[in-house]
Amino acid sequence: EYRGLVKHTGGCHCGAVRFEVWASADLHVFNCNCSICTKKQNRHFIVPASRFKLLKGADNLTTYTFNTHRAQHTFCKTCGVQSFYTPRSNPDGYGIAPHCLDDGSVQTIVTEDINGKEWEKAVKEHKTIRNMSKP
Questions:
Q1: Which burial class, exposed, middle or buried, applies to 31 when counting CB atoms under 10 A from its CB (0-12, 13-18, 19+)?
Q2: Please, what is the average pLDDT of the chain?
Q3: Which segments of the chain does DSSP mark as H helices, in order?
Q4: Do the Cβ atoms of 126 and 76 come closer than 8 Å?
Q5: What angle do CA 42, 52, 33 make, to 5 degrees?
Q6: Is 6-126 in CATH node 3.30.450.180?
Q7: pTM of the shown model
Q8: pLDDT tens across 34-50, in order?
């Protein structure tokens, strides 16, 4: 258990992939405009790997990478939903899709736009994004 955090559970559409994540009940979600996030409407919040646990479905995940191949875009082989992934900005953490969380554990969501079209500049100028995966 993590002080001041709540346990969220979630997963893909078909239920083959399930996870739990410890995070605030008040989520800080990034809305990125890079090519893949735009196509997938990928909005996500970032947590350290130590606060994420895959409960089931490891064998049902597949991964897509492109460009630098640092981001690991995992998704369910059955329904195609990406409920979490490893972001380029935080390769030691996870980006969690808030819309894949089960109802009841989120109080508020604040969304911040990030200019992923100019990824290097945006991450360099952002004051906290690189540290979001630190415990």
A1: middle
A2: 93
A3: 35-40, 119-125
A4: no
A5: 15
A6: no
A7: 0.89
A8: 888 899 888 999 999 99
The tokens describing 14, both together, are: 């078909």
**Contact of 33 with 119, CB cutoff 8 Å:** no
Q: Which helix (H) or strand (E) holds 85?
A: strand 84-85
> Domain ranges in the chain?
6-126
Contacts of 12 by beta carbon, 8 Å cutoff, 6+ apart: 57, 75, 76, 78, 79, 81, 83, 100
**Cβ pair 5, 22 in contact under 8 A:** yes
What backbone phi and psi angles, to 5 degrees, belong to 36? -75, -40
pLDDT band for position 131 (cuts 50, 70, 90):
confident
Buried b / exposed e over 97-127, threshold 16 CB at 10 Å, is bbebbeeeebeeeeeeebebeebeebbeebe
